[in-house]
Design goal:
Blueprint lengths: L26 E6 L3 E3 L3 E2 L1 E7 L9 E6 L19 E5 L4 E7 L9 E8 L8 E6 L9 E2 L5 E5 L1 E5 L7 E2 L5 E5 L5 E5 L3 E2 L5 E8 L11 E7 L9 E4 L6 E6 L5 E8 L5 E10 L5 E6 L13 H10 L5 E3 L9 H14 L6 E3 L1 E4 L9 E5 L27 H7 L5 E5 L17 E8 L2 E2 L1 H5 L9 E4 L24 E6 L4 H9 L3 E4 L5 E15 L11 E8 L3 E3 L4 E9 L4 E8 L2 E6 L10 E9 L8 E20 L7 E4 L4 E8 L3 E20 L2 E6 L8 E4 L3 E10 L7 E9 L6 E9 L4 E4 L2 E4 L1
Parallel strand pairs: 2-14, 16-22, 23-24, 24-25, 28-29, 29-31, 36-51
Antiparallel strand pairs: 1-4, 3-10, 4-9, 5-8, 5-12, 6-9, 7-8, 11-14, 12-13, 15-17, 17-20, 18-19, 18-21, 21-22, 23-32, 26-27, 27-28, 29-30, 32-33, 33-50, 34-35, 34-36, 34-37, 37-48, 38-39, 38-49, 40-44, 40-47, 41-43, 41-44, 42-43, 44-45, 46-47, 49-50, 49-51
């Protein structure tokens, strides 16, 4: 059985009034069966509550609560043959009613089943039996959640006096949820290193829902495109392990490294890379700095969180970001001890910090990262903290937070989660260096671009904001999270806290929606220009240097009326397009292929959100009929929830019922096109009817309202081999205000990446 999160570290609040001094008097509970159960398997559990000395009065009740992040299916009492059917009975003639709500209790225990007594009372020793996944009338059972959790709790609360106060029983039964069979292999390398610098290759197998699985084994051959010192020809992957790390690897000569992992039949099951080895400049270090564990709203312990980041996601940099109003002083102390313990210069950089979680009305979510442990946490509120002794240290608005952090050695991100950051209301360029524009919540370019007309100079970061204990490899599962979690690549000379802080303060980083690609963006000027070490609007005395070339994130003043943007990309997958932008304007869309390369492959994409707030999820239902065609091949794009419909129905039709949260999803079809072939695309948001001969390289777009909500159709080559691209563009510079020069890359498998802008003014 796995470890349950320590209750003294969890910021939750129970009624201060209770029937008696000893909770044992309220009864006790048992669960059958207990043990380990596979993710998304179907199970039946019987929870037996035995009434304590107080009894239960008429209209009294017990409540079984679960963590909000669970995606095990909505409990229901109306369809005996459906999933997650629940029943309850007593050993007496008393009647019971059941009520389930997804938000029926306080966080993190939002999911709650209330069993209420009617028409009688229960005495000490009487029992209530609840059957979760009752199969007696045809139900397949209760669906387990899609992600692993060593200590999944059936937390039982009792209101024995029928006063509306629910108090937890002393012992909580729990089970362990474990991974399934191997679905795919992953191999991970860094993306930028110097010759003879040490790096590692991480290997793991994942189940169908993205959990590293211990059910994998085998012998594999490793085949590299470039000589790698220390890389064995073959490896034995041991059964029972969830990852394998090959450390102390080196490459002596410059070049591009891609390592294939071949099974015993010679089939490539995974490819790691690209890793660029070059003589000078920075190295690239990958991080996910934003996620939570079971001490706040997530699952697993914070120790397991850091273990996953280092040994399962193969990150170089991480942080833990619990909602501040749920961080009690015991957990804050413990978290600082953990970050100090796991931090190791040159190998694994860990930052202490927290999520300032004020409502949007007072500024919205911010991530705070300290360079060192032992700093004062400035909370937005004490909403879930009964210890009020330090309430005077709160910062109740984002503006106040920035003021209170002036003397701290820290950096701040703005982000979009349950609450979104209002950067027009509060922003401090001395502290807030970056905007998180992608997470498991979706994609939010607007958080960065809203700052352009305000004169903000912020870099791009992407993180997971994951709640499922998987920082750096955060799959959304089957719940409200709609995207795979993001990653940030930090370009710096050394893997230390000082190096990462310097990188952040100069915006020398880029973000992706979860892939690892090498990205190099430079801007060159015809005349000598001035580069600033820090933003001169916030730091008038900052160091400045003469230059003719700058990199992503730099702030530069130039007399030139034009500039040349140069980019170099090495990707894991073929590149579909690259947008080169000045602010919100797309100056050029580069594709590594020409219209003459197009084939019989059509791509259909839906994207966007309802609005900026918590309920941004946008449902898409529809069908695409390719009249006069036969579909030869069908491939899904960003279809993370395997239980949402997206499928080929017959020889020429695809149907779907899915959603987006600012990100995009869709599909490719390879067609046999007959004469006068047509596309009839119908959705709940609108439709596109088009002759296939009129679908080309440029997007056919149907705008669908909401927030950047649209439907797109375009044609691609049947095979696109371009994973490595160099390109440059001559750009006229606006004479007034900042020119924010940045790029957005989209790969064919649906991942995206954004550079931090170069900020140029004349």
């Amino acid at each position: 059985m796995g470890k349950v999160v320590a209750s003294q570290l969890v910021g939750d609040v129970w009624p201060s009034a209770q029937p008696g001094a000893d909770p044992v008097l309220y009864g006790h509970v048992s669960l059958d069966p207990v043990g380990a159960f596979e993710v998304r398997s179907l199970q039946t559990f019987r929870l037996v509550y035995t009434v304590g000395r107080y009894g239960i009065d008429d209209t009294g009740s017990i409540r079984v609560v679960f963590r909000v992040v669970g995606d095990w299916g909505f409990l229901q009492m109306n369809e005996p043959k459906g999933y997650n059917f629940v029943t309850a009975n007593t050993n007496t003639k008393a009647r019971l009613s059941l009520d389930y709500s997804g938000i029926g209790h306080q966080r993190p225990w939002f999911k709650s089943l209330t069993v209420r007594l009617h028409g009688g009372y229960l005495s000490e020793g009487d029992i209530i039996t609840i059957t979760f996944g009752d199969t007696s009338q045809g139900s397949p059972g209760m669906k387990m959640q899609t992600f692993c959790e060593p200590g999944f709790e059936f937390k039982v609360l009792a209101d024995v006096c029928a006063v509306g106060h629910y108090y937890p029983l002393v012992k909580t039964p729990h089970i362990s949820i474990v991974p399934g069979e191997v679905h795919q292999w992953k191999a991970v390398l860094p993306t930028l290193r110097h010759p003879s610098s040490v790096f590692r290759l991480g290997i793991k197998a994942e189940d169908n829902w993205g959990n590293p699985t211990d059910k994998a084994s085998g012998q594999f051959t490793l085949k590299s495109t470039h000589p790698v010192e220390g890389l064995p020809n073959t490896i034995d992957y041991p059964l029972g392990g969830k990852s394998l790390i090959l450390d102390q690897l080196k490459v002596k000569e410059p070049g591009v490294v891609r390592i294939q992992m071949l099974d015993e039949t010679g089939t490539c099951v995974a490819e790691a890379g690209p890793l660029l080895i070059e003589e000078s400049g920075f190295s690239g270090y990958w991080g996910d700095l934003h996620g939570q564990s079971g001490e706040s709203i997530g699952i697993t312990t914070s120790r397991e969180y850091f273990e996953f980041a280092r040994n399962k996601a193969f990150l170089d940099v991480t942080g833990h970001q619990a909602n501040d109003f749920q961080v009690n002083n015991a957990f804050w102390k413990y978290l600082n001890e953990l970050t100090d313990q796991y931090h190791e210069d040159g190998r694994f950089v860990v930052f202490p910090g927290y999520e300032w979680s004020g409502n949007t009305a007072v500024g919205g979510d911010r991530n705070v990262f300290f360079r060192n442990e032992g700093r004062q946490i400035r909370r937005s509120s004490h909403a879930l903290l009964s210890d009020r002794r330090d309430i005077d240290t709160d910062s109740p608005s984002a503006a106040q937070l920035f003021e209170d952090l002036q003397d701290e050695d820290c950096v701040v991100y703005a982000h979009v989660g349950g609450r979104y950051a209002d950067i027009a209301q509060a922003h401090d360029p001395r502290l807030e260096t970056a905007m998180e524009i992608h997470s498991a919540w979706g994609t939010f370019e607007w958080l960065l671009t809203d700052g352009f007309p305000l004169g903000h100079r912020s870099g791009v970061v992407c993180n997971s904001d994951g709640h499922k204990g998987r920082p750096g490899a955060s799959y959304p599962g089957a719940a409200t999270f709609g995207a795979y979690g993001g990653l940030t690549c930090f370009l710096t000379r050394d893997l230390t806290r000082d190096g990462i802080f310097e990188c952040l303060r100069r915006r020398h980083h880029y973000g992706t929606t979860g892939c690892r690609m090498h990205m190099d963006v430079k801007v060159q000027f015809d005349q000598e220009s001035t580069i600033f070490e820090r933003d001169p609007k916030a730091f008038p005395d900052t160091n400045r240097f003469a230059t003719n070339e700058v990199m992503m994130g730099d702030i530069v003043q130039s007399p030139s009326s034009e500039a040349t943007l140069k980019l170099s990309l090495l990707a894991h997958n073929p590149i579909e397009r690259i947008e080169i932008r000045n602010g919100e304007n797309v100056l050029d869309t580069f594709r590594p292929y020409t219209p003459s390369n197009l084939g019989n492959r059509i791509r259909v994409i839906w994207s966007g959100a309802e609005y900026r707030g918590r309920g941004r999820q946008c449902n898409w239902t529809g069908s695409a009929v390719f009249k006069g065609c036969r579909i030869k091949q069908f491939v899904k794009i960003n279809a993370w929830n395997h239980e949402r419909r997206l499928e080929q129905c017959n020889h020429n039709t695809v149907e779907w019922d899915t959603f987006t949260t600012g990100n995009f999803g869709g599909f490719d079809v390879w067609l046999e096109e007959g004469p006068a072939a047509e596309l009839d695309l119908t959705t709940n948001r609108g439709s596109i009817q088009e002759a296939l001969e009129d679908i080309g390289v440029e997007d056919i777009i149907m705008e669908a309202g909401g927030l950047e909500r649209r439907l797109r159709v375009f044609r691609l080559p049947e095979d696109n081999p371009h994973r490595e691209v160099e390109y440059q563009l001559r750009i006229p510079l606006k004479p007034e205000g900042d020119n924010q020069l940045w790029i957005c890359v989209t790969t064919e498998d649906g991942f995206q990446a954004w550079s931090s802008p170069v900020f140029v003014y004349r």
